[in-house]
Amino acid sequence: MSAGGFSARRLTGLVYKESLQVLRDPSAMLVTFALPTVMMLVFAFALSLDQSHVPIGVVLESDGAMAQDLAAAFSGSRFFDVTPARDRRELAAQVVAGELKGFVVIPQDFDARLKEGSRGPLVQIITDGSQPNTASFVAAYARGVVTTWLNGREGAHAAPVSLDARFWFNPEINSRHFLIPGAIAIIMTLIGTLLTALVVAREWERGTMEAVMSTPATMLEILLGKLLPYFGLGLIATFGCTLLATHAFGVPLRGSYFALFLLASAFLVPALGQGLLISTRARNQLVASQLAAQTGFLPAFMLSGFLFEIGNMPGWLQTLTYLIPARYFVASLQTVFLTGDVWAQFLPNILAMLAVGAGFFGLVARNTRKSLDV
Amino acid sequence: MTAAIEIRGVVKQFGDVEALKGVSADIEAGRLTGLVGPDGAGKTTLIRLIAALMTPTDGTICLGGRDVVTFATTIHSNLGYMPQRFGLYEELTVLENLRLYARLRGAKHDSLDATFAQLLHFTRLEPFINRRAGQLSGGMKQKLGLACALMAKPDVLLLDEPSVGVDPISRQDLWRMVQALTHDGMAVVWSTAYLDEAERCDTVLMLNDGRVEFDGPPRELTQRVVGRSHCLVGIPNERRRVLAEALDLGIVRDGVIQGDAIRVVLSQGADVAPVRAIAARHGGRLEAVAPRFEDAFIDLLGGGPGGRSAIAEKMAAVDLGTDIAVSCHQLTKRFGDFVATENVTFSVGKGEIFGLLGPNGAGKSTTFKMLCGLLKPTAGEARVVGLDLRRAESQAKLKLGYMSQKFALYGLLSVKQNLDFYSGVYGLTGALRRERIDEMIDTFELERFLKESPETLPLGFKQRLALACALMHRPLVLFLDEPTSGVDPITRREFWTHINGLVRKGVTAMVTTHFMEEAEYCDRVALMYQAKVIALGSPDALKARVARADRPDPTMEDAFIELVNAADGVERDAA
User: Which residue range(s) make up the domain with B166?
Assistant: First the structure.
């Protein structure tokens, strides 16, 4: 009898057991397949950061031909739904009520100012500062409409220096294209950390952990018996999400499946490590799920650069993000989907994820003994 | 020859609490050793230490001469362990569970199928190999757990409370299996709170408060109380009052209702005359009876809790206004195709203790839930205090108190907050609410625990608190669902003292149980089996039905097994 040594037979028994449990446990299937699908749909449709048809007002104080023409340009823009007015007082109330997100004033002397070519401002843009994102959107696009109109005017002089912004990799600035790769990272965190922590806690609750510990199986076998099936499950979910992203949501996959596979594998190391670390302490499912949500899911959501740009965070928070494995994964996923295989970025990120993972597993090893003593 | 398990001066500390305070014992091979003691005595801790799942704070444990801490891996290959909840994977089938444990325990490949067949035959699980463990009955789970623990033919088998929540027929099966194993030379440790089980063990190790109280054959302990056990028989009524009177004498160490009789154990050297006088005064007589292990057990632990229930004494006598407290007629409940109860009919008089007895899945809980208004019957009628549950459900609910199996206390609320909550649930307000809460705190002596969580309370106090919560609104009918499952004999006696006291005040008690002795405390029991009531009557009447020449004085358990088997036979004949 191979007491003490590693036994492949015991390990395969444990892996087989775990796989059967996953397949027969509705909640595991829900987390692995139904939840990702729902999340992808939410991120694809509900959580779009793009805006169009924002309601604004245009106050036309001048009857000049040029002023009329600019007002028409606003009405023609697909970014705005324009409410025309003659007096700014008519619109102020609607902005306060939130019906309009701002308004543009085309002043009385607009035509005169234009002819003079004065350096002073041509129009006034008033926005609702209580919604900063929308406000800056309105300001930027209104400025854009004016600039386009100026440039398109007959006999216009080309401005001495013209700024022509071009967005690479995501020419339409379609937020879906960078949200969906990020969503995959969130889903993987759920499977890697939450599911792993839950299933180990369940073994404690049902007393099966105690029974398995009383057999010759070693802790390494017991832990690997958990890790391998969920590693596989994580990869399957990644593949499923990728197919959904590319085929259903039209997100391009410009990099290779090989790079994607390698990145996902590297990310699963810290995700599973964190799940196991939680399970060494949390011996019931409620505590395990709370811990996994607070330390795994939320940081992956907020500090990974998925929704909030890391560059805009305060310095100390930026430093903290280096400890969040999702940070490296989100960045790499966006690259592999939208740009292609950029190994110069992938390799350091993979190393960073493995390093965080090694840290987690080091802690797991230190905290795990084959014993019921706490 | 060295003992299979040698325990030497074992101490185990959890934080400030000392669970074991220096335990030494030898456990021999080829014998069944019963590990008995009240809840919290350290039984589970000792078993886990033997199984090398915990490290002793001090002292050593050796299995086959090997220290369990140093040789944990070797120990795990020679040891079968069945934890309290059997350690089964519920999503896996019977066969898959067996295969998993075969691999984990390193059972040899070539012998695998033979071992399987043998174990399946031994445990009579063959017909169920493809059923998921989660869908097995308690008794079958326990057998499967045993089969998993036996997979690699261990030298030592540890069973932690294997028969809690298992009906008598499955218990008998398990007993038969374990006997066969000890004959083959295995050392078996069986931890139990059931003293009739302990009595049948070859030897017992009795723990109390982390120390060994007794180590030896059970009859040796029983010998200590020889001549002190008596029964008051022929007492036509008011048995509960007589019991309380006897316990008040001060020379009675322990007393319980046993069907139509009252069993008492006297103090060492006490004069029997005062007890005989009580029996005579109530028209009965006193008979000396053979001592049981339980008599000696209670005696060793310092006697039972006495006969007075503070709560019952404070409570004014209640009057239902009707003679029938609970009744049901042709009560049927179907869940889809499954018939949970079929044409259940009985009625319970006021001030009666009525027991619903039966194996798991017989329909006890379903009947109970319909009577409490928690489930709607598919057909038939149920009445509580004359109120039809279909029409006056909420009125009826205010008249009944319900105490569920697991006590249903909120662990995150303090004792005081639990009392506040339940008083609110039952609609008590203002001065009356404060008065009742104070009364409960006072009578159940909960004052010093008010700020603590119910989970940290000693079991006896937990039970008091649960009872307090159910009694706060002065219910006329008490529903007690498996009130003492897995509870040690002393705590159980304390509980029944309260119930007996309440019943004497006119409260009616309905009890579900699969614990045979508890059935003896009832005035009448309905034996349920496969959704039907197969027998109804007083405990003594049921016992008398199965008396034979070779067994003139059957136990309640004998009656149960025989009546259930007879019902099975009738079905076979019909089919």
Answer: 5-219
